[in-house]
Design a protein that fits this description.
- This protein has six helices and 20 strands.
- By secondary structure, it is an alpha+beta fold.
- A hairpin with a 2-residue loop joins strand 16 and strand 17.
- The longest helix has 24 residues.
- It is globular.
- The two termini are 29 Å apart.
Length: 388
C-alpha cells in the first residue's frame, strides 16, 4: 500500500470516531448478524446460478460454495436458508473432487435470525456425514433448490435485504438474505453469479460483467469478482444509464418513472476517480447504483462491493429535484461518496472486532465529506458534513 494512502487512512481513522457512532446507530444492515449456533466452516468462494421465469412461476438456483473447515473436526454442517425454498439436492466433495458420504440431511428448528434491519425466520438445515471432516479440510458444497409456489409475492414488498420474488422485482441483498446458505457470520468471498431472466429485465449484480447472451426471449449474464464480495442481486425492468471516462464508469439501474440527471452520474464518477487515485485501483472499472423498487419508509442503502443498492422510496424526490433542491442534492452527494468508499474500507481493506462499525461507517462519512471538499471546495465539504 502506498505511503500517502496510509497517511490518508490514518487521518480519517483519527477523526472518524467523532462521527461514526451516530451513523452506526442509524444505518440499516451492515452489521453482521450472528450465525446459527456452533462453529462453522469459512466460505472461500461462491459460484451461483439463478434461473428466473415468473411467467412459469420458476425461481431456481444451483450453487457451488467452496469451504474450509474450522479448526475442529465435525460430522455435520449446519446452515440457514429461507423457509420458502425447497432443497432439491445437497452434496459435498473434497479437494480432489471425490464425493463425501452423507448419512442424510434434515431440517432442524427454524431460528429467529437478527439483522440490523429486523428479525426474520430462517430454516436450519443439518447435513450429517458418514466420516468426520478433518480440521481445516477443504471441501465444496453443491446446493440446488427452487422456490415453492407459496413463496411468490405480489408488488415490491418492504424487506430491503431478504429474498423477495415477484413479477416486479426479484432480489436478495446480501449473504444473509436467505437465498444463499448462511454458513458463518461473515459471508463475503470471491464470487461468480450467473442469472437468466426474461430479456425485458436487467439485473444489478456485484462484480465485473464477464458475459451476456440473449436467446429465445431470455438474457443470461455472468458477473465475477476476485476479491471478497457479499453475494447480492436485484432484477427488474430496469433502464441502465451508463457514464464513463477513459474506461472508468458508473451505472445507474433505474425504474421507468425515474429520470436520470447528468449531474448525479458526474458526481458519482468524480468520487470514484478520486478514491481510485488516492487508495488504489480495486480492479473494477465500473461502479453501479441499483434502485430497489420497494415500499420502505426511511429508505435504505447497502454497499456490496462495486454495487450499491438503494431503496427507491428513500430517493424518490432526488430525480425530480436534483438540479433545483440544494439540500436534496447534498444528501445524494453525501450518500454516494459514503457508499462508494466502502469499496475501499469494507472490501479492499477491512476491520474486524468491536470497532468495525466505527471504521466502516464513521470512516465513510468522513471520507465522503473530505472528498467532496477536495473536489468542489470548502463550502461544499461543510454542506456534506452537515448531512451527518
Amino acid at each position: 500500500m502506498k505511503l500517502d494512502t496510509l497517511l490518508y487512512l490514518l487521518l480519517f481513522a483519527i477523526i472518524a470516531l467523532a462521527i461514526g457512532l451516530p451513523s452506526y446507530l442509524n444505518k440499516a444492515g451492515r452489521v453482521k448478524a450472528p450465525a446459527a449456533q456452533g462453529s462453522f466452516p469459512t466460505v472461500t468462494a461462491y459460484d451461483l446460478f439463478f434461473n428466473i421465469d415468473l411467467a412459469q412461476q420458476l425461481f431456481q438456483s444451483r450453487q457451488t460454495i467452496s469451504l474450509v473447515n474450522s479448526n475442529a473436526g465435525r460430522k455435520e454442517i449446519t446452515f440457514l436458508i429461507h423457509p420458502d425454498l425447497v432443497i432439491d439436492k445437497i452434496s459435498f466433495t473434497d479437494a480432489q473432487g471425490s464425493s463425501l458420504a452423507i448419512t442424510g440431511w434434515s431440517f432442524g428448528q427454524p431460528v429467529a435470525y437478527t439483522r440490523l434491519s429486523g428479525t426474520v425466520t430462517l430454516n436450519t438445515a443439518i447435513v450429517q456425514f458418514t466420516k468426520a471432516i478433518s480440521p481445516r479440510q477443504v471441501l465444496t458444497m453443491q446446493l440446488e433448490y427452487h422456490l415453492k409456489p407459496g413463496g411468490f409475492q405480489n408488488g415490491v414488498g418492504r424487506d430491503f435485504y431478504g429474498l423477495f420474488v415477484s413479477a416486479q422485482n426479484q432480489r436478495a441483498i446480501g449473504f444473509d438474505s436467505g437465498a444463499f446458505p448462511v454458513i458463518e457470520s461473515n459471508g463475503a468471498a470471491p464470487l461468480k453469479i450467473t442469472i437468466t431472466v426474461p430479456d425485458s429485465e436487467l439485473c444489478g449484480i456485484p462484480g465485473q460483467l464477464v458475459s451476456s447472451e440473449t436467446s429465445h426471449g431470455f438474457i443470461t449474464s455472468t458477473y465475477q469478482a476476485t476479491r471478497p464480495y457479499d453475494p447480492a442481486f436485484s432484477c427488474a425492468a430496469y433502464k441502465k444509464e451508463p457514464g464513463s471516462l477513459n474506461g472508468i464508469g458508473v451505472e445507474f439501474y433505474l425504474t421507468a418513472d425515474q429520470t436520470y440527471r447528468a449531474g448525479m452520474g458526474a458526481a458519482a464518477l468524480d468520487y470514484f476517480k478520486l478514491y481510485r487515485q488516492l487508495f488504489g485501483d480495486p480492479g473494477l472499472g465500473i461502479f453501479r447504483f441499483v434502485y430497489v423498487p420497494i415500499e420502505l419508509e426511511g429508505g435504505g442503502a447497502e454497499s456490496k462491493g462495486n454495487t450499491v443498492y438503494l431503496s427507491k422510496q428513500n430517493n424518490v424526490d432526488v430525480f425530480s429535484n436534483f438540479d433545483t433542491d440544494t439540500n436534496l442534492k447534498n444528501k445524494f452527494m453525501a450518500l454516494v461518496g459514503h457508499e462508494e468508499f466502502h469499496e475501499w474500507n469494507a472490501y479492499y481493506s477491512s476491520w474486524s472486532g468491536d470497532l468495525a462499525q466505527w471504521w466502516t461507517e464513521g470512516g465513510a462519512n468522513f471520507m465522503s465529506a473530505w472528498a467532496g471538499e477536495m473536489l468542489w471546495g470548502a463550502a461544499y465539504g461543510r454542506a456534506l458534513r452537515a448531512q451527518y
